[in-house]
Structures are given as C-alpha cells and as structure tokens.
Fold TonB-dependent receptor-like beta-barrel domain-containing protein.
Amino acid sequence: MLSAQEPRTHDDVLTLPRMAVYSQRVALQEPSAGAFAMPVSALSFEPLVDVHARNMGESQADVTIRGGIFENTGYRAGAAPLHDPQTGHYSAEIPIAPAMLTAPAVLTGAENAIGGWNANAGTVAYQWRRITTSGMAGFAAGNYDTVRGEIYQGWVAPENTSVRGRRLAFDVSAARAESDGSRPWGESRFTRYNARAQLAGERGQTDLFFGRQDKFIGWPNLYTPYANVFETDDLRTTLIALNHVEKIGDGGDRLALGGAWRRNEDHYVFNRADPGAHNPAFATGPAWHTAETWSAGAEALVSTNRIRWRASAGFVADKIESTSLTFGRFNSRSYYKLMLAPERTWELGDSRELTVRAGVALDDTNRDQSAWSPVVAVELRGIGRRIERVYASWAASSQVPNYTALNSNPSAGLFRGNAGLGRERSDNFEIGARGVLGAWTFDTAVFYRRDKDLVDWVYSMSLPNARAASPVDVDTLGFELTARFSANWGDLVFGYTALTKDSDYGDATGMVDASFYALNYAKHRLTAAVVARPWRGWEIRLDNEARLQTGNALRNSRDDALLTSAGVFFAPSIAGWRGLRFFAQATNVWNCGFEEVPSVPAARRQWCAGVMCSW
C-alpha cells in the first residue's frame, strides 16, 4: 500500500511543488511528456500496478493489478466509489487535479475485499488533501508540437474567522495540453478545470468538489486491429463530489461519508478520414455514449472494549444512453454493498502483537444475483529486529460486468457482447511479510487468486474481424517484492512481480486463439525508481521497467521490453524565487516499440522542457 505522507526534504534538495504527483515508489514526479498531471500519472511505474496505455497513460489507460484486467480495478475518492458503467477503459478518467488528492493507496487482497467495490483484483484509493495557502504554475513545450500548462491556487481563511475550530478554504486548478502525437494522426488535446471548497479542523474535514475534463484522442488502431485505420475518441467527464471525515475519540476511530455524481460522454469515430463511414464495431457508424453514475459510501472504524469494528456501506446507481449498446436486457442498474469486519489484537509480550480479523460482505444489484464474500486475516507484528510483520489472509470478492460486454451486438460487429454474462467471483489467498535490513525496507507477498466467470475479450481465427466477450476461469499465482533505500544523496525503489496463469474458457476453449486482456500479462516485471541529488538544487529522476510478457498472437512487437522515463530538475538559489525550478524530461527514452495492448502501436520517444514556480 502506498503511503500518503509528504516526501522528505533536505536543505540541499529542492522541494517538490504543490502540484506534483507524489508516490513513494515512483521517481519521476511529472506526467508523460505530452500531458498535464492526472491521477493516473503516478501509476505508470508503480510496482503494484501495471498500466497498459494507448499512446500514453494520460491518453487512455487500462490499469491492471496483480494480473487482473482493467475491469477488475476499482477507484475511490474519499469514501465514494468512482465507476464507469460503460467500460473499464474509462474508469481512470478522474477529472481531479492531483494537487487536491493524497498519494494513491493500492488495496489488494483482504484490504480490497473490505475497502473496494466491484473490483476483484484491487482498488486505487485516493483521499482529499488538506488545503494550504499555496500555489503553482508551470509551462512546458517539446517535440511533436507539444505544449502544456497548468496552474493551481489554494487559499485558507484567517484563523480568527474559524467556525467551531474549523477553517474555510478554497482551491482552484486549470490545465491544458496539446500535442500532435508521436505517430501520424496521433494527436491529443486535454483540458481540465477544478474548484473545491473545504471546511477543516483538527477533528475533521469536509470537501465539496467540482471538476470537468475534456479529452480528444487520436491514435492508429486505438481499439481495432485494422491496417491504416485512424480512430478518434472524444471524452467529456464531469464529476461533483462531497466527502466528510470525522475523528471519533483519540484512538484512531473515524467516520467517513461521501457521495459523487459522474457523467462521461464518449464520441467514438472509427475512421477519422470518413467520419460517417461504416464502422465494423457499430453498424450505425460513429458511436455516442453517455454514462451517468450516482454513488454514496460510508465507512466507520469504532473500538469497543477489545474489539475494533470496521464497517462500510456503498450504493451506486447508473444508466447509459448509447447509439450502439442496445442489445442487452437493461441500460440502468443499482448496486449495493455492506461489509462488517471486526478485529481483535492480543499483546504477546516482547513488543509482539497478534491481530485477527474476520468479516463478510454482501454484494447485490437489482439485475443480478447477490453474493456473500468472507474475509479472514491474521497478522503478527514485532517478531524480531529485522522482521516487522508477517500476515496471511483469505478474501473473497465479486463484481458484475459492464454495458459494453452486456449490450454489444452478440452476432455482428467488431465487439460482440453477451447479455447472459453474470456475476464474477474471486478468491484471493495470500501470505506476506515486511522486513528491515540496514537502510533498506522490504515488502513481499505470495498470492494465489482464483477468478471464476471473469469476462475477457478474446480473438478467434474463425472470426478474424471480431473480438467477443467470453467468461473464463483463471488461476493466478504471483510473487511481489518491493525494496526501498533512502539516503541524503538519493533514493532507490526496486519492484519485482512474477505471475503465472492457468485459464479455462469452457466450451469456447478450442476457439480462443488470443486474449486481449486476461492473458496479456507480464510473466516477469522489474521496476527501478532512482532519485539522485548530485549537487545543491539538482535532481535526476529515472523510472525504469523491464518486462517479459507472455506470448500473444495479436502482438506485432517483441514480448520483452525496456521502458525508461527520465527527468532533470534544477532549482536555482535566487532570492525571492525559492519555488522556481527548470526541468527537462523524456518519455520512452529508448524508443521501445513494445505494444502494451496487443495490436495497438506504441508511442515513440517524446520530450519536453519547461519551468515551474511554486509559492
């Protein structure tokens, strides 16, 4: 899990500006060279997350966790779940400036079963950051006619104007980025506007947020495998959210309440050269979709005697209007989740503690069968000087498919759906440990996840112009290791993940020649984040990833890859300009052509240089 704390600073090190996307496991605190910072920016080299990008992660990102697919990843802002009912391709469209959020926490295993929603592999959870009177502005330009800029300003009312010890605060943000893209017809245009009001004190915090983000994306083979087809996707995402957190007593108990309304409009064009041409995916030609969700969530952590109770409740209602997703049984759905997980801790002497947690969740919708999902976790802390904790857990979870899988035409078009798809279930078994060796800290886990009726998109040579939604049973065995070293001269973070899978498509097994998502995974993935501070005011940041992907008949590139993003930052010592810094950065330094999504061309090397000032 990622820590939400602020980065450490030293006298000889520049302080990252307020707008930075901060993650302890990622070195480069900047977005891809052709975009402004988005919540997904911090995930590209995250050891616990694998981002499969079309062009760049900020353009279109399939965020996968522990070998799952993008549909198995959930998102939260505060206590409210964020959800796109049309397709998980758009789940990461979160129109919030990262300056308003804490670093993302990646919930897996038992934590995902308790704190996640409709996400069997994992959940990316953000919290609302406390506003301070500060601001930043930045500008950069680069190759492929790239220009980007962003501005943020926060303001806190004077202390003598507080109401019952809580101070009113506001922050606003605006950002824009344009690029012709590293491939022909691969341009992008992004804009985002945010405003937030906050009432915060020592005991609690309330946030009211509005955000709007518009994205135009062009890319060859954005979603289809046809040669010389240049597709576009035009997205408009609006989010209104309200969240409240209140401390209960002084022992860490708390109550969190949240709600959100999200609207995502999508205009997809198969062939931009002839926007009205026949689209093999959608017989009506260009497709329009509008998906809306209303969500509410509540979490409570309450201690009574020796038992600590963790309870949560969630509700989501959605609907979709579409010119093409019209072949299913419904176009609206309501979801419900209730979770109760008490825990108890025993003092064993010699500073050792044993904690046992057991609970159960109920997931239900008005369109699908309900499911009960148990969770059991045991943790032992303070084992020795070098081992901080060991744990074991078993957690079940469940989710339901989206409208692209349920409502696409089952007998024609590129994307073929199945209105009969039902609830997906998962069991996750896990053991792990955290240790310390000198200046190094280590986290490791071995897990086995059993997915039943996971909805995958598959390819068959008997239907070369179609990909079909097909249920599959998948057994995933995985190993994770992260190691972190920190010193005054710099920081190192290494991550390693190994995965192996067994799949069973049932009666369709003999007709599956390739999997777009469930079997598109890295058998071995190594990440290395390097931060060096060679001289006063200078930082060199490198994010590296080496991977060996499992073979895929649809991939036109090699199955191994070495990816690097790099940045050089300089903060001059100028009186009155302490927050000024200059930077240059590059994405895909080695110009690697690896296709993260099979049949989708990789983005080429892209660079930019600019200046940022914080105050």
Observations:
- The longest strand covers residues 463-487.
- The two ends are 30 Å apart (CA to CA).
